[in-house]
Amino acid sequence: MGTTLVTGATGTTGSRTAARLVAAGHRVRAASRHAT
User: Model-level pTM?
Assistant: First the structure.
């Protein structure tokens, strides 16, 4: 399975999307405007 890029990963929708993808076994790369 490939890697999925989630933009806006520090926001509500992006963080929930990233968490669901990881829980489903996907590899996730997260991007945001500011480093946290």
Answer: 0.78
